[in-house]
Amino acid sequence: MFLASCTATQVSEQAPEDIASVSTDGFRGAYAAEFAYNSSTAPNDQIRAILSDSDITEIEFNEVLISFKHCVSDFGYDIRDYKFDGSYGVDFADGEDTALVNSRVNDCSKSSGEAQVGSLYTWINRNPERLDESEIVAQCLVARGTVENGFTAADYDAALMSDSFPYVDTEQGPDLLVECQVDPLGLSR
User: Fold this and answer.
1) Burial 81-107 (b: 16+ CB within 10 A, else e)
2) Is 119 helix (H, G, I), strand (E, B) or coil?
3) Does residue 27 belong to any structural domain of this protein?
4) DSSP for 2-69?
5) How far apart are CA 88 and CA 147, in angstroms?
6) Taking a C-beta distance cutoff of 8 angstroms, is the pair 185, 140 a contact?
7) 66 & 152 share domain
8) What is the Cβ-side half-sphere exposure of residue 148, based on CA atoms within 13 angstroms?
9) 149-163 burial, b for 16+ CB within 10 Å, e for fewer?
10) How does pLDDT run across 108-161, given as a tens digit for each residue?
11) In the list 27, 113, 118, 135, which could disulfide-bond 35, CB 3.0-4.6 Å?
């Protein structure tokens, strides 16, 4: 079976009061508060060291990802299709309890540091200046010809809520929407 998932702690989903309660002293950049918060919830000194300079290198991220995948494989699962936005899939045996699989994968994400490092790595690489998410996705959709010119961030938010996008090409539109959501600035292309 296959389970779609994402990094456990996405920047946009962290409770603002939790982030605001952690000192950002020693951290810098557009994601300083998230680096401070994720460092405060890191499972070990290695993960805190990775986060300490407000940057995550590809090598550091890959070390954490390998640890995460190893933990998951100990349960007989496989992580596949780890995407630029931090989403990924999990392969597991037919008949296995999906809630148990999800719980184990989330535990591995936290214990390996993937929850803290993976979320920030994907966010700082797909939106380094922390631009408005709805705005950059809407701009991507227009630039890719997915929707008509004049489509705005407010239009995107409304379409997202209603799950009804005004695609120019209804066949390719859904795929282009996913591409723009995963990589709105085209940084991985």
Assistant:
1) ebeebbbbebebeeeeeeeebeebbee
2) helix
3) yes
4) EEEEE-SS-GGGS-HHHHHTS--TT--STTHHHHHHHHHT-SSHHHHHHHTTS---HHHHHHHHHHHH
5) 27
6) yes
7) no
8) 3
9) eebeeebbeebeeee
10) 999 999 999 999 999 999 999 999 999 999 999 999 999 999 999 999 999 999
11) 27
| Interval 59-100: pLDDT, tens | 999 999 999 999 999 999 999 989 888 899 999 999 999 999
pTM for this entry: 0.82
DSSP per-residue string spanning 95-117 = T--HHHHHHHHHHHHHHHTHHHH
Domain co-membership, 115 together with 157: no
> Which H/E stretch holds residue 80?
strand 78-80
**CA-CA distance, 7 to 160, in Å (whole number)?**
21
Give residue for tokens 């920030």.
Answer: 120
**What is the tally of structural domains in the chain?**
2
